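User: Structure please.
Assistant: Input sequence and predicted structure:
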Amino acid sequence: MPLDTIRVYHLSMMKICADDLECNTGYSLTPSQLPIMFNSGKTGVVGDIGTGLGIQNLWNILSPTNEDIAEIGVQQGTDGSISISIEDLAHLFPTGTLTGFTIGHDPLIDFSTLITNATLKTYLDGVLQATISGFSLLDLKLTTFPLASFPEGTHHIGFKAEESFNEIQFIWEGTTHSGPIKIYQVLPILISPIETVC
């Protein structure tokens, strides 16, 4: 008699070699556009987040609609953090690509207070390429993803990559505010030719 039983209900498959992407074009990291997945080793709660929200509705980050959101929160003053990392399985995003996350917060809270909690990291095949934190992150004004289509208090935060990458990680700490904050999507904005690894 087996010690345990595993039930498999359905099989999910993904096309790894994506279609060519265009320069000077904005893409949100969603499975409908790109062959992406969460990196489970770099996604989750790290350390003590106190009474913080943690991560709610993580998979909504990959949704193509603005109505689907994830929420995260870390109690202010704790040493824990929340990390979300998404990897493209078929492309290298080249030097010069604008990348980041679209986040939302209570519009009564000053954005400059919140940004000190955030860190973005990029990786190439698992090797760290860049770490950008706090006020070094840009509040991107992207015409490709106009903020008018999002609720008040939404920002595209990110930076221009100086190294090619195929994975981006968002880290949120409780440095100055407990949150929660909303996460709508992940953004690569291509401003130079893209290389494929298919």
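The chain has one domain: 25-193.
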